[in-house]
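#data-curation
PF: Archiving a pair of folding outputs for the training set. Convention for this channel: one message per protein, sequence first, structure tokens after, nothing in between. First:
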Amino acid sequence: VTYVQVPNLTFEKGIIYSAFPNAHIEEVPNRGYDVYPFLKVINSVNLDRYDAILKLHSKGQKKGKYFFNWNYPCKKISWREGLLAPLISTPEVFNRNLKLLGNGVNMVASGPFIVNRVGFSCKGVREELQHLGKHQIKSFEFVAGTIFLASPSIFKSLPFYDECYFPVPIIGTEDISHVYERIFGFLACDNGGSIKACDYDYSKFLYKLTNRDLALRWLNFCRYMFLYKLKIITKTKFKDKYLHYIKIKQMAKHINFK
């Protein structure tokens, strides 16, 4: 368990130890959102000792509509509920998801938050992957929110960076932490691996797509195409939007629009 360094954690530590007497609690500097503490932990343990890693962290209750994955168009739900309920809402749900790991499935996460389009839109992803020795880079999926079950082996290639590599979080900005959000997904999908949606009934999260939804996405794609022609955005950014639109078009064939 990691906690940002604060003057007094006695109360919080007591709650954790009462539920998990053998827990190891480590205080970390307020850097890199949830990513730096996670990298610090996985680099301090022998990953071969573990069959699975469950990565959890605090999330807000702000609600919104999410279109990360067009197989799961979400109505207004919070990130906390949307990410956690399909993964660990009950012991039965958790055990079903745990059984999904293996046979090429390297990561399990809430379906609506698996971004099923190219993950390069966050600046610096390609450069960081090449720094990690990943030069044959293809499109991949990743989990928005970085809450997941994963195979420990996929993280073995990650180096440990000094805390100074990760800036103090500034809400609403993207930094190296968001790059690693994508990289975790790349590692899960590398060498033929995959990310699988949790075994869960998502019906309460979903809503029926409309012609208006498709039209708005088409107009957004046209806008990006125009910006690309004017050389205002990069080819990578345009490719991201293009693949997103192709996915929408494929999904439209199987959707009964209102």
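PF: Second:
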Amino acid sequence: GTGVAAAYFAAYLDAVDLSHNEAIRRIREAGTGLYVARDVKDLYAPGFAFATPARPTITAAILAYFLGADAVTGAVDPYSHALTPAETNIWLSVERNLNDEVIERLVDAVLTEVQIDIRNRDAGPETMLICSGIALSPAYQASASTDTYEAARPWLRSDATWKLDNVASTNVERATLTLRWLYDESILADAVTRANFVKLGFEADLEVVQLFDSTAALDAYRATHYGTASGTAASETVYQPQATNSFECYLTYNATG
């Protein structure tokens, strides 16, 4: 496809990576003795990664592009987004600008993984979006996109309220939600760049760190590892406390003061 200028900008300076991932094959032939006859580039497989503090607009945009389906309701801000996985690729242009000296754009890129990391204070109070992806081809740019940054402050850990299995919880120390598309990344058409990406499956992992602050929390811990709240031996049973098995996190500015 044709690359376009960036519309959203990640303000965070750490954890930014653009990798060209070129596969070079060495060819040896009779008559060249101990030396390589020539090098051939078999594959150009660019990828990218970045992290950014989670603010409302960029969070909604990244999740919509990543998941693929976004049903927006509401006439004014704040809008409501119902985001669901969709099989169709959302093709993006991803740009990296190194001080207006090296400006590279990945064309026909897709997000493969988005992690929402709601951190405890000793790891940094701000909620982070940690993203990675792949692209079909790079395009060197003569000039950078004009950058504009979201004015709203990032969500903090203290902005979060929680529900686990549809029950309000006050003992969550931190939570990390990782969403991941599994892709067939090796579709070639006798070219050095890849021809397409096809989604094969969707995965989600959730890690929640809770404090022991009640008998119920201790029972849940024991049941997770020993099968039941009174178990004493390792269990092959996957503990599922309720049919909902739900996790809810509400990030509202100054939710807990």
